[in-house]
Amino acid sequence: MKLLEVQNLKVSFRSRKEELNAIDDISFSINKGETVALIGESGSGKSVTSLSVLGLLPKNGRVVGGHIFYENKDLLRLGKKELGKIRGKQISMIFQDASISLNPSMKIGKQITQGLAYHRIIARKELKREALRLLAKVGFHKPKEVFNQYPGQLSGGMKQRVLITMAISCNPQLIIADEPTTALDVTTQKQILDLMNDYKQSTNTSILLITHDFGLVAEYADRVMVMFGGKIVEAADVFTLFKKPIHPYTKGLMNSIPKIEEPRNHLQTIKDAVIEETAYEGRIFAPETFSADEKVYHSPSTLIEVEPGHHVRFFNESSEVLIR
Amino acid sequence: MNKLVEVQNLSTSYHDGINLKKAIEGVSFYVYEGETLGIVGESGSGKTTLARTILRILQPDYGLLKFDGEDISKLTGKKLREMRKDFQMIFQNPYESLSPRLRVGDILEEPLVIQKMFSPEERTQKAYRMLENVGLAKSSYHKTIHEFSGGQRQRIAIARALVMNPRLIIADEPVSALDVSVQAQILNLLKDLQKEFNLTTIFISHDLSVVHHMSDRVAILNRGHLLEIAGKEEIYKEPIHPYTKSLLSSIPRNDPAKRGETEEKIEVPPLSPHPPHLIHIGNEHYVAADVIEIKHFEVQK
C-alpha cells in the first residue's frame, strides 16, 4: 500500500538573476513499512525533495509543479493549518545536525512534550510520563536525568537520540531522516540506525532515508533512488541495485568509496566510470550526469524501466540535442 | 628501515580554565621513512592533538618526540622554525585553511618566503610546478580561492604542503569535508604523490575504509590512549583489542545480501585511568594490555 506518492515534483530556487531548477520532475512512492533511500552528492536535490514534502522549503524556493499525495491528500495544496496537523504527527523529520535542531535554552523534557501537547495526543498530566517512557525506549538509561537537562549537556549521539525521541513521539506513519548520522562517530552511527530500524520494524513505520553513503543504503534500505542534478538517474530495490547497477553515475558513486574487502590501488572516479561506458543495450545514458557542458546538461532524458522495478535514465534520442 | 618519527610516552593537555585536561596520554609509536601510518579515532580521541603535538604546534607535557633521531619535544624559537621546514599539515576544511585574499601563487610561495628559500623567480617556478603536480591549470596561479571548488581547494592545500619538499606530511581528515566522488580524486592524488615524492605520511581519519585504503600500518586511538597498532591487513583481519573489534564491526558492509548476518556483540571495557602498556605480540603488532583490560581478551597468538 502506498503511503506517500510524489508525482512529477519540480522545485526551483530564485537567485538574484535567475530561477534555478533544483528538482526536475521527480516521481516516487513509499509503501507502508518500507525504507526508501535517496542517495546523492551535495547539490543533487535530495534534501530539497524531503523539505518539499513537509512544506519546509526556504523562502527563495518554491514548488513549481507536481503533487505529493499522502492519504489521498495533496500535501502541496493543503493550507498551513492542515499541513501543521500532519507535520510532526503523521510525518516527522530527523535532521542531520542535532545541535542546530534542538533549542539550546530549553530543557530536553519540554522539547519532547511540546509536540505531544500541540497535537493533543495525550492528556497534559500524562506528558511527562510519556516523555520518560519514550526516552527509555530510545536507550537512555536515566531518562529522568535527561528530561531535566539542556542540549548542551549531552553528547552528539545523545542529542541525535533526543531528536529520534521527538520524531517518534506522536507515532508517525513516516519518518524523514535527512543524513541522520553524518555528524556522528561510526559506533554511534550504528547504534542510532539500528535503533531506528528496530522501531520501524516493530511499528511498521515508513522511513525516507536521505544519505550520501552507500554503506548505509546497503544496510538499511529496501528501495533506492540515486539522484543527480535534481533528477533520479537510477532507481531499484536495494538487492538489484547492488547486484546490477547500470547507470555509470551509480557505479561511479559505488566504486569511488574505498572498500576494505576489495582493496584497489586506485579508486575509480566518476569520470573514469563514464568514459568506459556510454550506453546500455543500445540506449545512451542521459548525458547530464557526466558532462559539464551546459547545453547537454539540459538535454531531455527519460527514466526507462529496464527490468521490473529497475529504472534508469536514458537520453531522449528523438530530441535533436547533440552529444559528442 | 629508518624510523623518521618516534614517539615515546607522549602526553599533551589543555587548560579548561580550572583543570588540566589530558588530551593524549602515554602515546608511543613510530613511523618508518616512506610509509603511511593511519591513525583512527572517534571524536574526542585526541587524534588532532596528537598531530599538532608532533608538528610542535603544541608543547607536550612530557614524553619523547624524536624526528630523524633528534628529540624535538623541547625545541624553541629559531631552531624549531628551521625544523618546521620538514613538516607540513593538510587540514580538513579547505574553505577555512586557505586565505581568501591571497592569490593561489602567493599561497604556494608564502611558506618558501617565510623560510627564505630560493630566489623570487625560482619560487614562482616551483609554484607552477606544484600546480601541475596536483593537476591544476597553470592559470590557477593568478586566481583567488573563491574561484575554486572544494576538491580544487584541497588540491591547492596539498600543493602548499608539498612545495617545501617536506619529509613528513600529516593529513588530518583531509577528505571528510568532500563529496565521495571528489574524495576519490583527492585520495588518488595523495597516493600518487606519496609514491612520486617518497613521502612519509601520518594519515588521520575517523573513516576506517579510507584509512585502510591509504595506510601501511594503522593505530587505534581512543580517548587519548593508543590501544592497538599493527600492519593494516593484520589489524583489520585479526584485531585483538575489543575497542578495535567494535569499531570494525560498526562499518557498514556495503552489501545488502550480508544484512542481518548476526555478529557477536562486543563489550568494550571501560577506559582505564592510566595509559595502557603496549605489549608486542609479534609482527610489529602492539596491543594495550592494562590491568583492567587483560581479562577481557585472550591473546590469540
The computed structural class of chain B is: alpha/beta
Annotation field: number of helices of chain B? 9
Order of helices and strands of chain B: EEEHEEHEHHHEHEHEEHHEE
Low-confidence stretches of chain A: 320-324
Our estimate of the beta-strand percent of chain A is 25-35%
Distance between the termini of chain A: 44 Å
Q: How many strand units of chain B?
A: 12
CATH architecture of chain B: 3-Layer(aba) Sandwich
Q: Based on Cα principal axes, name the global outline of chain A.
A: globular
Largest sheet of chain A: 8 strands, mixed
The CATH superfamily title of the largest domain in chain A: P-loop containing nucleotide triphosphate hydrolases
| CATH topology annotation of chain B | Rossmann fold
Count of separate structural domains of chain A: 2
Number of helices of chain A: 13
Oligomer: heterodimer
Give an overview of the whole structure.
The complex is a heterodimer of chains A (324) and B (301). Helix content of chain A is 34%, strand content 27%. By secondary structure, chain A is of the alpha/beta class. Chain A folds into two domains: 2-100 and 174-315, 3-Layer(aba) Sandwich (Rossmann fold); 101-169, no CATH class. In chain A, the strands form three sheets. Chain A has an eight-stranded mixed β-sheet with strand order 6-7-8-3-9-10-14-13, with helices on both faces. In chain A, strands 2-1-4-5 form a four-stranded antiparallel β-sheet, with helices on one face. In chain A, strands 11-12 form a two-stranded antiparallel sheet. In chain A, a hairpin with a 4-residue loop joins β1 (2-14) and β2 (19-31). The longest helix of chain A has 18 residues, at 186-203. The termini of chain A are far apart. Residues 320-324 of chain A have low confidence and may be disordered. Chain B is of the alpha/beta class. Chain B has one domain: Rossmann fold, CATH 3.40.50. Chain B has nine helices and twelve strands. Chain B has an eight-stranded mixed β-sheet, with helices on both faces. Chain B has a four-stranded antiparallel β-sheet with strand order 2-1-4-5, with helices on one face. In chain B, β1 (3-15) and β2 form a beta hairpin. In chain B, α3 crosses α4 (120-133), α3 (104-114) runs parallel beside α5 (150-162) and α4 (120-133) crosses α5. Chain B is globular, with a radius of gyration of 20 Å. The interface between A and B is medium-sized, with 35 and 30 residues.
